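User:
I would dearly like some help making sense of a protein record. Take your time, and here it is.
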Amino acid sequence: MKKSIISDAIINIFLMIFAVIQIFPLYWLFTFALKDNNEIFGGNVAGLPQHWRWINFKIAFIEANVFRYFLNSLLVTAITILGVLVISATAAYALERMIWKAREAFLKTILLGLMVPIHAALLPLFLVLSRLHILNSYAALIIPYIAFGIPMAVYLFTSFFASIPREMEEAAAIDGAGIYKIFFVVIFPLIKPALATVSIFTFISTWNELMFAVTFVNKAQYKTLTVGIMSMVGAYTTKWGEIGAGLMIATIPTIIIYLLLSKQVQDSLVAGAVKG
């Protein structure tokens, strides 16, 4: 009995230490965003601010135009997630559940996209987008983001579709349901965990992406949050507290999205483990 109590106590202590390690970066970023340069470089790096400079958030939002960049990132990310979900789910269903020639070749071709580094496609994409005259626009970011999000999403969806019994579709077909009704009424509700997983992966990769955003967009009206925060670094002086406020603003949506969809992600991981 005593050994069980001691082992439980050790596990709880370990989990508490692990939780503190995970939460500390958020605490540090929050306190960093409420300081000025004198306090940051004066030795109070990880402590609570001596003067709580909430004005840093106001300056970042209004004067540094972070609010505009935030809306741009939100628009680009939302359209990207929607595009990836619709294209990948329908493509994966056709590749996994339908019988047609060359479907294995098509699947392997799509999955080859997982092996293409984003930096290797930078120059070819720039030339293509330039010739299409869509540089400095939302499309210049949304199209590449969707293209690079599809391979991973198709891989996850095909794995999830493989675990769904085909008898459900056969029963729906016997009742007179067509292919679209089978997909949207029977199959679609069953893949919510996979949808949540793909949404989180796509959100993180799109929301935090910098290379494409800084290369394909130069106009301030189309810049995303990562580029906007980078532009806050001055040539001679940099107000790091205001940059910290911008980073905190950029971090909050990621936390909210994960908290909202974490249960579905766990369900998809458990489903994959049971299937394996």
Summary: DSSP finds 13 helices and no strands in the chain.
